[in-house]
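Box 3.1. Reading complex inputs
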Amino acid sequence: MRRLYLEIKNLRFYYSIPLVVLFILIPLTALATLKKAGDPFPSFVTICQLYIPCFASWWPLFVLKDYLNSPGKELLFVYKQSQDSLLGKMVILWSLYVLHILLLFLVATFLYEFVWFLFIAVIIQSLFLTALAYFLAILLQNTFVPLITIFSYSLIFMLAGGYSPLNIFVEGLRDVSSLDKFVFVLVAAFIFLYAGLQMEKRLYKNSI
Amino acid sequence: MLTVNNLSKRFQHKEVLLSINLVLENKVYGLLGANGAGKTTLLRCMAGLFNPQQGEVLYHGEPIHTSKSFHHDLGYLPQSFGMFQELTLYEMMDYICSLRNISPSQCPSAIARALESVNLEDKTGDRVRSLSGGMLRRAGIAQAILGDTKVMLLDEPTAGLDPSERIRFKNTISRLKQDKTILISTHIVEDVDASCDSVIVIDKGRILFNGSCAELKNIALNKVYHVKETDLAGIAGENFSLKVNETEGKVYHRILARDKQTFPCQEPSLEDGYMWLVKGMA
């Protein structure tokens, strides 16, 4: 945990970006929709899915940067061989992000119904995009391309909408049946994590 | 003791290391070779970063990948160094202490000692990104000597250091070398001469020589000549010009020649022995 604390400290300004999104941008946007006529919950669903899952990959990718892009990556990989894997860091950072999402949703329960279905959906989407970011980062030995990919994916599928087997986002989450799709999203997330771990163990060693 | 057994490494179709055999004891070894000779690949294999296609590296008789003590005992300095740019130098060293399983209670004193060795004790609060290239190199040396390091693999540690820092590095190595296996990869012959007990010469992935500095010098014994430029045509047999210098308006060549010459013989240096080997004159 000491290492993770220092890695997070190394992010400096970049650490605060997801916090600004979660605790300033989303509440302000949600409050703005409350004034509209009609049910504000669908707008909250869209806002949450648009902003929360994609920023789940922010901390993991910036932490991975030193392991993949810095001049000292060779040293880090020599010393970390008997230590924790990068996958472990991804899971811890996702968990930390989920704690922050939980805080947001605790407040949201005062304003909306059905909010816990949305919470489950959003944390699974966050895990999926974190896993995809980890997989792409290890595959490409780069953190910039995965970041752009994740944000482009979120924007395209959230804003264009419509049904696609590649789309992890859903419109209108109001009951348990809305969560059916997320079983597949969860399985896909685990596949990406597993594939990333295998590449981390085998491929990276010979690619410096 | 670090043992390299029949180690071969290939990238695509290019053979980079060919059946390397080494036994490294508690001494300072200089790994000498030209650019592209395979020095860095050998060091990376010895640090466990690369998996060789053939052979193995043993630490006290146990493969390094299964050895519990190897990664704790290893101090490694790669050619390029510098990460966690936004942390202070102290925090970066603390991170490496944690990676190397150095007890948290011992970290402050270990960091202080290591930074003092490289003359960076007054930079502990500076961010890594604010350090100059030379300071970063010294920080790299400091992290390699952190704690109770027993094996040090240093890849071109003096690259980018100014003359006074190079002397300081040599003194640091002399002070630390007790009960340690130190392998310094370099193409600077003077560094080997000044700091190493033994020298290993590598060329095109093969070990050409493994012995003491005196033995390497002796390879070129009675083969080094000081020849006036105007007399060059008089050299008999295969020869190679090592150095050209001017003395009292006359140009002299330091020549390595296979056959006995009539010109005055010179005392061989480590560089002469090294050149004799890599030029294939042995």
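In summary: The mean pLDDT of chain A is 86.
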